[in-house]
Specification:
The complex is a heterodimer of chains A (about 350) and B (about 280).
Chain A (H helix, E strand, L loop, with lengths): L1 H6 L3 H22 L27 H11 L12 H4 L52 H5 L8 H10 L3 H9 L6 H14 L6 H7 L8 H13 L14 E2 L14 H4 L8 E2 L6 H4 L11 H11 L23 H12 L4 H5 L8
Chain B lengths: L1 H21 L10 E12 L2 E2 L7 E2 L5 E2 L3 E13 L4 E3 L6 E5 L7 E7 L1 E10 L3 H4 L22 E2 L4 E10 L14 E7 L13 E6 L6 E3 L4 E9 L1 H4 L12 E2 L5 H8 L3 E10 L7
Parallel strand pairs in B: 1-15, 12-16
Antiparallel strand pairs in B: 1-2, 1-8, 3-4, 5-6, 5-7, 5-9, 5-11, 9-13, 9-14, 10-11, 11-12, 15-17
Classes of the chains: A mainly alpha (about 350), B mainly beta (about 280).
């Protein structure tokens, strides 16, 4: 697309175009090379994945099928909304610019779309942990009346009638039959490959090249370890627990984890989100109520509410609430958080629309 | 002399009549199998269920209809009087009974020959199956639904809906159903939670078959066990459920009261033994 457009323009562009085309072509060539597809690789600084990869071995055809499905609006009732409509790669697979998700017929959801990122290490999914296996997840957005508003049965029927999909399923799973299980597993294969592990932080931790933290980043790392790591634990930057960080109920009174366990001590608790890729994932929190990182820090410093299930880590011995940070600590912390942004993750064509 | 002869004939006749109804043919051979048919026949109190059209009154005095009724029956077991139990193999032991689909109301299972006096099953889907990999959820457990349609899986809070009953009632006001259709909706599920304990609405139903007719299962024949499922019990048991007060019950604490009530809705009415196979006999 890009080089076709530039071909019509002047000479300097043509030269640029040649260079670009060459780069693209080189990429392409690499793409079709036999071992282009490295499969799922656990980053050296990550723990063992939670997802059982033996039960759904990732292969190139399965991944590509999953990638195609993820980007295909056929999965929605009126063929307008794809998974990627709300999980946009350039926003680390969140719904940039939306506090709560924006779905079919412009209907609004009640929660902020979390990133599709490092899901192989997730014990459960959604802000309330209501889904406990990645393979079961896609049913929820497909059937949610304010998201894709389609029935899984009908999606499968549409795929079976499609000119390409039966062949693609055959390539991926050895049978053109499009079953619920294979459909869901293909989507999982794509989502599992969305691994973000190439931020500066990762390179420092793995001792790659000569990457090192600056003095500010190093100081910020210490601030993080002291004040944030109790919940946003390394290396995923979440301990995956459900906690109340003192935001207080929102207008629709979303009670979070309580809706799954019906346990009063779980009300207003939400899953601790990762701190990776914050540069791309604003707005923040389960309902996207905080628009900037400055607002997030301000929340922890001054605005933590006295809610019944407020996490003990946010109560101080003197009876005050929140996290005490000096101005320098705040600046250092923000510098450290920048080292968690993984530009490769949000630009990698491998995770893009595909072809 | 004559009287004596008559007595013998009479006695013989009674004997043969008794043996006829109790136990026709040879004694059961556990190496052989026959068919056990469970018939799920829905009633409301002393009326037959007329899906969509019938009107009924619950204990709270509220008028209601039933236009949707589906529930899972699973993990079927049968036992003989001498304590021999046959458990239907796990993979073949999930049934979705749907009041709008006649075939679904006849569950046919192949079991060893025997004279079964006890029937036990779960109303719902056990927690093990509720957490199994997606490839093990086929047939009626397919989250996409089977040919009878879906709607028995909660995708946002992974798990099956065990029992779904919906209909209309003038007792349901605008607050209860903002669409103004006076609908009540009972979707009951909850297998106990995956990583944190929560609602467990799985119910075990155990029925004594000996009083209304032991199931004599014999090769190439069918023993048809006719069950009545009384939906009035949904509203009437340890809790008197009011449609006005609880028009919508889904995943929440109140669902446990309804599940406790409906556990008692099954009763064994009668058995027809030694029926031809593949019948959908009453």
């Amino acid at each position: 697309m890009a080089h076709m457009n530039s071909r019509r323009t002047g000479r300097p562009f043509a030269v640029l175009c040649l260079v670009l085309a060459c780069a693209v072509a080189c990429n392409k060539a690499a793409d079709v090379a036999p071992d282009w597809f490295g499969g799922f690789k656990k980053p050296a600084n990550f723990p063992e994945p939670v997802y059982d990869l033996n039960a759904n071995p990732i292969n190139q055809a399965g991944f590509e099928l999953g990638r195609k499905l993820f980007h295909d609006p056929l999965l929605s009732r009126n063929n307008t909304i794809s998974c990627a409509s709300c999980h946009i790669q350039s926003s680390a697979f969140t719904h940039h610019g939306h506090d709560v998700s924006h779905g079919i017929d412009d209907k609004l959801g009640t929660r902020n779309a979390p990133p599709i990122m490092n899901l192989a290490w997730s014990k459960n999914f959604f802000w309330d942990g209501g889904v406990f296996h990645l393979d079961m997840l896609a049913i929820a957005p497909i059937e949610n009346p304010v998201e894709m508003d389609e029935s899984l049965m009908n999606v499968l029927a549409k795929l079976r009638q499609h000119t390409q999909y039966p062949r693609l399923f055959e390539k991926a799973f050895g049978s053109p039959e499009i079953s619920t299980a294979n459909f869901l597993k293909a989507l999982s294969q794509f989502m599992l490959m969305a691994v973000s592990s190439n931020a500066k932080y990762d390179k420092v931790m793995r001792g790659e090249g000569h990457t090192a933290f600056t003095a500010d980043e190093q100081a910020g790392y210490a601030v993080y370890q002291q004040h944030c790591a109790g919940c946003h634990a390394e290396p995923l930057f979440t301990d995956q627990s459900f906690r109340d960080n003192g935001l207080g109920p929102n207008p629709i009174n979303d009670q979070g984890r309580y809706m799954i366990t019906l346990n009063d001590t779980d009300s207003y608790k939400f899953k601790v989100p990762s701190l990776r890729n914050l540069k791309y994932t604003a707005p923040y929190m389960h309902d996207g109520r905080l628009l900037t990182l400055a607002a997030v820090i301000a929340h922890y410093r001054r605005e933590v509410r006295d809610t019944p299930n407020l996490d003990p880590l946010l109560r101080n011995p003197d009876g005050s609430r929140g996290i005490v940070l000096s101005e320098t600590e705040k600046t250092d912390l923000l510098a450290f958080l920048q080292t968690l942004n993984d530009e490769k993750f949000v630009t990698d064509p491998f995770l893009g629309v595909g072809n | 002399m004559k009287a004596y002869q008559y007595l013998i004939v009479f006695t013989l006749g009674v004997l043969s009549f008794t043996s006829c109804s109790k136990n026709e043919g040879p004694a059961p051979d556990q190496q052989l199998t026959g068919n056990l048919q469970l018939k799920f026949d829905h009633i409301v109190g002393d009326k037959k269920l007329q899906l969509g059209s019938g009107e009924y009154t619950n204990t709270a005095g509220e008028l209601f209809t039933v236009d949707l009724l589906k529930y899972y029956v699973s993990n079927v077991k049968i036992s003989t009087a001498d304590g021999r139990t046959y458990t239907v193999p796990q993979e073949e032991s999930y049934f979705l009974i749907d009041a709008s689909v006649t075939e679904s109301q006849f569950v046919n299972i192949e079991v060893p020959e025997g004279d079964y006096t006890q029937l036990t099953f779960l109303l719902g889907v056990d927690s093990l199956r509720s957490t199994m990999p997606v490839e093990d959820r086929t047939g009626v457990l397919d989250p996409a639904g089977d040919h009878n349609g879906g709607g028995m899986y909660w995708s946002w809070n992974s798990g099956y809906i065990f029992f779904k009953m919906e209909g209309q009632s003038p007792a349901v006001d605008l607050e209860g159903d903002p669409t103004g259709q006076h609908r009540y909706r009972y979707h009951i599920g909850g297998f106990g939670g995956y990583d944190a304990p929560t609602l467990n609405n799985i119910k075990t139903v155990s029925l004594d078959l000996s009083r209304a007719g032991t199931a004599n299962v014999r090769q190439e024949l069918s023993s048809n066990v006719h069950l009545f499922i009384d939906l009035a019990k949904v509203f009437n048991g340890s809790t008197t459920v009011s449609l006005a007060e609880n028009p919508t019950v889904m995943f929440g604490d109140y669902s446990a009261f309804i599940a406790n009530n409906y556990q008692a809705m099954f009763s064994h009415d009668h058995t027809h033994n030694f029926e031809p196979l593949n019948g959908t006999h009453e």
